[in-house]
Each structure stands twice: as structure tokens, then as C-alpha cells.
Amino acid sequence: MNHDQQMREMGLRFLAEARRGLDAGRSEESVLQNVGWGLELVLKAALQSQGWNDDRCRREIRHDLLKALDAVEKTVLARPRREARAVVGWLSQGYRGRRIGERLAADPPPWLLSHAVGEAERLAALLTPEGQKPKAI
What we know:
There is one protein chain. The protein is mainly α. It is 70% helix and 0% strand. It has helices at 3-24, 28-48, 54-60, 65-75, 82-95, 100-106, 113-126. Helix 1 packs antiparallel against helix 2 and helix 2 (28-48) runs parallel beside helix 4. The longest helix has 22 residues, at 3-24. The mean pLDDT is 91.
């Protein structure tokens, strides 16, 4: 398994943990942090599958989920669903500074938590080649 496949698998595991957290009634902050970690890894894995390396991701993306999504849209796929972009845009603002809890308190998202998890899962599915989808997540 190469580096981008390992990153993608780790990202999918974080998204699976977000789903489990949602189903178990964990806090919004906990669930959204897992969504953020999962999206960051899945998006960067998609970029690395197109020739990006860790250094380029660190320089150009860092932990900015919206920048990562923009780069993925330019190199990997056509613009994803508008709802996914809205979730990534809202989450990116708190995720970059590890301030999701503060973001939730100051500016609650306009969508349900289940919507955020579902949109992240759909975006990850678009970016995961069929042969690399994990069997038991």
C-alpha cells in the first residue's frame, strides 16, 4: 500500500469514527473534529495520487480544508455537490486553528450534524477508487 492509499484509509477511519460518534450521541465538537481529520487526509491523499507530495501539501494547503477542496476540484474531480462545499467551508474556519468548539458556540452551522457527516462520506466516496474502498469500516 502506498502513501496516498495509507492516508486515504486513515481518513476513512476518521470518518467512520465520526459516524459512530454521531450514532452514539457524542458531542458535536468530537464528531466534527473526526470529520475534519478524515476530510483532511482523504483530500490530501487525492492530491498525492495526482503527484503532490507532503511538502507541497504543507506549503500550499496546511490544515485549510477549503484550500484542499479547491485544489482537489482543479486536479481530481469536477466541482462536488454544493452541500459538501458548504460543510467544508464552515468546518475549515474552525478546523484550521483547532477551534471547532469556539466556532460552534459563536456561529452554529446551518445544517444538522448528520448532514455534515453524510456530505463528508459522500465526498470521500467520490475520491476513493473502487479497488481501495475498505471492506469493514
